[in-house]
Amino acid sequence: MPTQNNIRIIARLDIKGPHVVKGIHLEGLRVLGDPAYFARRYYEMGADELIYMDVVASLYNRNSLHQIIKRAGRELFIPMTVGGGLRTIDDIREVLRSGADKVAINTAAIRNPGIIKEAANKFGSSTIVVAIEAIRQSDGRYLAFTDNGREYTGVDAITWARQAEEYGAGEIMITSVDREGTGEGFDIELVKSLAGSISIPLIAHGGAGSVEDIHRVIAEGGADAVAIASIIHYDLITKEVTAVDTTQEGNIEFLKKNSGFIKIRPASIAKIKAYLKDNGIVCRPVSWYEESYSAKFEGHGQ
Asked: How confident is the model over 108-121, as pLDDT tens digits?
C-alpha cells in the first residue's frame, strides 16, 4: 500500500502523428487535439508527471516523438516519460537526449529482457519503466500483450512484472486492455495482484471513469501512481473549445454519440486531487492556476 502522501497523478497523452488521440481497448483512435496544448494545460493544472506514448510506433518500428518532447522540455518542468517503438539502447538514449526523464518499454523488453538490465545500468533504474498491456483470459490469468494489445505473447503478466523488477526496472506501468478507455473502472484484481508481487512503484492505467475509480485503485489496489487520459481529456475539451483540433471530424460529437463514453464522468486534476485528499490520500498540491480554473468551471460539463 502506498504511503499517504506520495501518490502521483499522471496525465497520459497517446500520440498518433501530430495529434493527441484516444480510443477504447487501445483501438478505434479518435483525434482530440494538439499535444503541446494538452501537455501545457495539464502542467499548469498540477499534473505530477506526463506520459507520452507513440501509439503507432510499432507500424514504423521507431518512436516519432522527439520534436514534441524537445518542445515540451523547454516549456514544462515536470517529469516526462516517453514510450512506443523503443527497441534499442540507442533509441532510449535518443529520447532521453530529446528531453525525456524516463522511457517506457514493452515489446523490446519482452523480446529481450536483457535490455532492461543494460538500460538500467547505463541510464539508471529510475529511468526505466516497463509497460505491461494485460488481457484477462478465460481461466482468470492475465497475459501480457504487445503492440497496443494486439500481439499475443503467452507471457504471464504477474510473473513478467516480477522478472522486470529483477532485471532492474524502476517502475511498472500496468494497462488493463479490457478496461482501457471504457470508463468502467480499473481492474482492481489485476492491480492488487501486481502491487503485492513487486516492490517497485506501480502505475495503474486503463479504465478510470470517475474520481471514485481513481480512489479505489489506490486504496484497494495499492497503486503508487495513476495514469489517466479520458477523464481529464474530456473535461478539458468540454470546457475549452481551443483544446479541440477542429480540422478533424467528430472531436466533440463522438463524445455525445458513442455510448461507450457515457460511463466517463469528466473531472479536472484539481477535482481528482481534492477528492483523494478528502478520502485520506494526499497528492502533491495543485497549482493556484488549477484552483482558479476549477472554480471558474465548477459544475460545468459534469
From this structure: 999 999 999 999 99
The C-alpha cell that represents 156 in the structure block: 504471464
Pairing of strands 102-105, 128-136: parallel
Contact indicator for 45, 290 with CB cutoff of 8 Å: yes
CA 127, 188, 160, 24 torsion-angle sign: negative
Was domain 8-138+150-296 assigned CATH 3.90.1150.10? no
* Pairing status of strand 8-16 against strand 19-24: antiparallel
Q: Are 129 and 170 in contact (CB under 8 A)?
A: yes
Q: Where are the domains of the chain?
A: 8-138+150-296
CA dist., res. 230 & res. 272, Å (int): 13
Active site residues: 14, 133
End-to-end distance of the chain based on CA atoms, in angstroms? 31
pLDDT in tens, 42-65: 999 999 999 999 987 766 666 678
Could you say which DSSP state residue 28 is in? E
Grid cell at residue 236: 478539458
